[in-house]
């Protein structure tokens, strides 16, 4: 009677622990970056151009001036005819360019 010999494949025996690790690594997604650098790029552009900005604080107060420098937690705004001011970022509601305000104001007057 002829019996067929069943042989394992010619590859090396595999360690199943390695298979599990690679499967887990494949399933694990990479984390998104902490920063997109959009904020940094915006600040650098405004600083280089010395763009007049309006910084609106959480309480509604508006600070007008140019951005002198920034770091992780603060902005330093240079103001004409008034002392420079250091603003903590958590107190800032939003920032916009003064020219945008003039453009919107001009359009309203024409309407």
Q: Can you offer a commentary on this structure?
A:
It contains 3 helices and 5 strands; from the N terminus they run ααβββββα. Strands 4-3-2-1-5 form a 5-stranded antiparallel beta sheet. It has a domain at 38-110: SH3 type barrels. The relative contact order is 0.12. The radius of gyration is 30 Å and the shape is rod-shaped. With 111 residues, the protein is an alpha+beta fold.
Structure summarized in a few sentences:
By secondary structure, the protein is an alpha+beta fold.
Strand order of the largest sheet: 4-3-2-1-5
Number of strands: 5
Spans of 5+ residues with little confidence (pLDDT < 50)? 107-111
For the sheet with most strands, the description reads: 5 strands, antiparallel
Number of DSSP helical runs: 3
Which CATH class of one domain is shown? Mainly Beta
Shape: rod-shaped
- Could you report the average pLDDT, rounded to the nearest whole number? 82
Rg, Cα atoms, Å: 30 Å
The percentage helix is: 25-40%
CATH architecture of one domain: Roll
Proportion of beta-strand residues: 25-35%
Find the CATH topology of one domain. Answer: SH3 type barrels
Structural class: alpha+beta
Question: What is the distance, rounded to the nearest whole angstrom, between the alpha carbons of the first and last residues?
Answer: 102 Å
> Would you list the SSEs in sequence order as H and E?
HHEEEEEH
């Amino acid at each position: 009677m002829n019996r067929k010999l069943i042989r394992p494949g010619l590859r090396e025996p595999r360690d199943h622990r390695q298979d599990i690790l690679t499967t887990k690594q494949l399933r694990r997604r990479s984390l998104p970056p902490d920063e997109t650098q959009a904020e940094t790029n915006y600040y650098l552009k405004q600083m280089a151009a010395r763009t007049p900005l309006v910084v609106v604080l959480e309480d509604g107060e508006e600070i007008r001036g140019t951005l002198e420098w920034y770091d992780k937690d603060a902005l330093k705004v240079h103001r004409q005819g008034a002392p420079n001011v250091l603003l903590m970022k958590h107190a800032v509601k939003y920032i916009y360019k003064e020219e945008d305000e003039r453009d919107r104001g001009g359009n309203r007057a024409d309407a």
